[in-house]
Amino acid sequence: MRLLRLGVHPLKSGAVRSVASASVEPRGLVDDRSWMVVDGSGRLVSSREVHALLTVVADTPSTDPTVRRALRLRAPDLDDLDLDVPTGDALPVRLFSLDLTAVPIPDADAWLAKALGRDDVRLVWCHEPHRRRLQPGYSSERDHTAFADSFPVTVASLASLRQLDDWIVEEALERGEEPPGPLAIDRFRPNLVVDGDEPFAEDRWTSLTVGEVRFRVAKPVGRCVVTTIDLDTLTTGKEPVRTLARRRLVGGKTLFAVHVVPETTGRVSVGDEVVAR
Questions:
Q1: Is this structure's pTM higher than 0.90?
Q2: 227 in Cβ contact with 241 (< 8 Å)
Q3: What pLDDT digit, counting tens, does each position of 98-132 carry?
Q4: Confidence of residue 204 (pLDDT cuts 50, 70, 90)
Q5: Coil vs helix vs strand at 88
Q6: pLDDT of residue 187
Q7: Residue 240: closest CA among 144, 147, 163, 154
Q8: pLDDT tens by residue, 76-87
Q9: What InterPro entries does the entry give (predicted)?
Q10: Distance between CA 249 and CA 241 in Å, rounded?
C-alpha cells in the first residue's frame, strides 16, 4: 500500500488542509485539531450544527509555510485573521461528554461571529493535549490527543471508498433514483488516506507502519451526519450513512475508516509505503 494523501485539521470541524508531509507526535499529526470553536457555555460548536465551519480555512506554519504566527483564519468575504498562541488562563470546555480545559483567544471572537453568523462563539486552544485521555478499553495511560473526537489519527482506504460508491450507485438504481457522483474522501475527515489493499481490509488490521512511523489500530470509526454534508454546497443528504447503515452496521454504528494511535514518532510523507498487519 501507499500513502496517497495527508490531511490536517488545525481547527476542529474546519476545512481540511492537504499537506505533502507531516510530523507525527504521540498526540497525532502536529497541529491537528488543536483549536476548537465553543459556544457561550464552553460547549463544542461543530459543523453538525453550523455547516459554515467547513468553509473556515485554518492554517499554521506546519500546513502553510507562509503563515508567520500560530494560526491564520480565512473565510469567504472576510479579511484574514492572524493569531498568536494565547497566554491567558484556561477555562472549562466540553467536547461531547468530556470535560476539558482550554485557553480562549478573545481576539478571534468578532471575526468568528461574522464568519459563522453567531455572536455566542469563541475560539479556544488546547494547551495541554497530554492531559486528554482516550477511550477506555482501546488505549493506554500514555495515549492522548487534543480535540479529536476519539483518537489521534484517522485512516481511510480509497479501495473501501470505491466499494462504498459502488454500493450507493447500486442501491440508487434499485430505488429508481439518479445515481450520485463519487463521494469526496474529505467527508470522512481522515488524516491518512491509503490505497493498494482490498476494500475494508482495514477491518482486520492491528497495526500500520507508514514510512518509519508505527501506529496501533484502535477501532473502526462510527460515522455521523457530518459525512452527509456536501462540502461544495453545504447541503445535507442521506448518503453515505443510509448505505453504510445497510452494509456496515455493527453494534448500532455505521462504520467507515479506522482510528489509530501513534506508537512511534517521526515524519510521514505522501508516497510512503504503508504496511498493515
A1: yes
A2: yes
A3: 999 999 999 999 999 999 999 999 999 999 999 99
A4: very high
A5: coil
A6: 97
A7: 163
A8: 999 999 999 999
A9: MoCF_Sase_C, MOCOS_middle, Pyrv_Knase-like_insert_dom_sf
A10: 10
Quick check: 255 and 221 in contact, CB under 8 A? yes
Q: Looking at the chain, how many residues does it have?
A: 277
Question: Which CATH number does the domain 2-276 belong to among 2.30.40.10, 2.40.33.20, 3.30.1300.10, 1.10.10.10?
Answer: 2.40.33.20
Which three three-digit cell numbers place residue 169? 450507485
Angle at 89 between CA 87 and CA 91, to 5 degrees: 130
User: How wide is the angle at C-alpha 59 spanned by C-alphas 67 and 223, nearest 5°?
Assistant: 170
Domain coordinates of the chain in residue numbers? 2-276
pLDDT, residue 263, reads 98
Amino acid letter, 108: A
Give, in order, the Cα–Cα distances in Å from 88 to each of 49, 58, 106: 28, 21, 10
Tens of pLDDT, residue by residue over 10-21, are 999 999 999 999
Q: What angle do CA 238, 244, 249 make, to 5 degrees?
A: 130
Query: Which residues on neighbouring strands pair with residue 154, listed in sequence order?
Result: 259
Quote the DSSP letter at residue 235.
-
Kindly report the number of other CB atoms within 10 A of residue 165's CB atom.
18
In the numeric block, which cell numbers belong to residue 86? 494565547
